[in-house]
User: Fold these one by one.
Assistant:
Number 1:
Amino acid sequence: MADQWYTVDAYLNALFAPEDVALEETLQSTVEAQMPLINVAPNQGKLLQVLAHTVGARRILEIGTLAGYSTIWMARALPADGRLITLELQPDYAAIARTNIVRAGLGHLIDIRVGPAIETLPVLAAEQHVFDLVFIDADKESTPAYLAWALKMVRAGSLIVIDNVVRDGAVADPRSADERVQGIRRGLELLAQTPGVTATALQTVGIKGYDGLAIGVVNALD
Ligand code: SAH
Ligand code: DHB
Ligand code: MG
C-alpha cells in the first residue's frame, strides 16, 4: 500500500506542486546539514499556499521553521507588503533557513525568531500581531500551549493549521505513553472545544507516511 501512496504522491506533486530550484536546494540543505527530513510534502506545502490565498493572508505565523521549506511555500502566497514570522529553537537551523529563504527571493517578507517558541509567543502577543494564518509544526508536546497563544493573535476569518495529528494512528490511543501523542490529543481537544472556532481533522497518506492535519477557522472572538 505504501508503494501506491508514493506513486500517487509523485503524480500529484508533479502536477500541482513541482519544486523549483529554491525548494530543491532547501531540501538539499536539510540533508547536507543532517537535519531531520520532516518538512511537509510538496502537495502539503501547496495546500498551505492554497489556504493562505483563501484567507488573503498578509500576516502568517509559523511555529517550527526547520530549513524553511513550508515557510517558502506559504510566503509565496503573500503580497509584496506581507509578512511571515517563523519560530525556530535551533540557531543553526534558523541560519540555514535564512539562506534558503533569501535564495528564494523572500528575505524581505520573512522574520525568523530564534529561541523556544513558548518564550517568543508572549513577545509576539505583546507586539500585538494579528495573523491571518497560523501553522503549528514544532515540538508536539507543546501543541496545546502554541494553540492557546495562536488564539490570542487571530481575527475572525483566520485559519489555524496543526501538522502531524495522526502519527501512524497513535493519536487514537488515550493511554499512549508518548508525550508527543498526548500533546497532540490535548491540542485537538482544545481546537475542537474552543467556542468561536469551526474545526476538523483529516488523516493523510503519502510520501510522509500515515499522518494527518487539523484545520480550524476563527468565526468570532470573545
Ligand atoms: N515546518 C517545517 C518543519 C518543522 S520541523 C517544514 O515543514 O518545512 C519542527 C521544527 O520545530 C524543528 O526545526 C525544530 O527544531 C523546531 N522546534 C522544536 N522545538 C521547538 C521549540 N520549543 N521552539 C521552537 N521551535 C522548535
Ligand atoms: C516529525 C515532526 C514533523 O513536523 C513531521 O512533519 C513529521 C515528523 C517528528 O518529530 O517525527
Ligand atoms: Mg510537521
Number 2:
Amino acid sequence: MYTAPHLVLVGPMGAGKSSLGRRLSQTYGLTFVDLDREIEIRAGAEIPTIFACEGEAGFRRREAEALADVLTRTPCVIATGGGAVLDPHNRDLMRQHGFVVYLQIDVDEQLARLANDHSRPLLAGTDRVDVLAKLADERRPLYAEIADLTFSPTGMGAAEAAERLAGLLVDREHRQGFPRYFPDPI
Ligand code: S3P
C-alpha cells in the first residue's frame, strides 16, 4: 500500500511555517505537528528556558530527537524550526520521510513579520538585521538542498498562502503523481 510522506515545512523564522502548516493540515485532514511545540511539551519547558539552561546545543539535541520521533508517526504536516536543517542527519531524515516545502522569504520580510515578536532567543539582541542576514547566508543553501518545492509567501496572509501552496501541491501531483498524499480537498 502506498504510504504518503510527511509534508515538512522548512524555512526561516517568520516565514509562516506554523500558520500555513496548520491550515494545510485542516484542508487535507492530516494531523499538524509544530516541532517547536513538540520540543516544549517533551521538555516541560519553553524554548527560551531550554536555551537559557542548556544553550543552543541542548536545544538542537532536543530538536533532533523530536524530529526523528515525529517522522516515525503516520503522515502529518510538520512545521519545523528555522534551524532544524543545520544537522545533516535531520536533513537526511526529512528528505527520506517527507515531501519538503521550503517557505522562502527575505530578511526585510522577516524583520517586518517579526517586528513584534520577542519570543525567539536567537533574536533577543539588538542586532536583528545582522543576525537574520547571517543565518540566511548560512541556511539558505541547506533549505534549498532538501526542498522538493520552494514557495514564496511574501506579501500574502496565511489564508492566501495556504490556498496557493495547496494549489501548487495539487499541480505537482497531477504532473508527477507525487507526493500523492492528499485525499480530495474538503
Ligand atoms: C530557531 C527558530 C525557531 C525555534 C528556535 C530556533 C532558529 O523556530 O526553533 O527559536 O534557529 O531559526 P521558528 O522558525 O518557528 O521561529
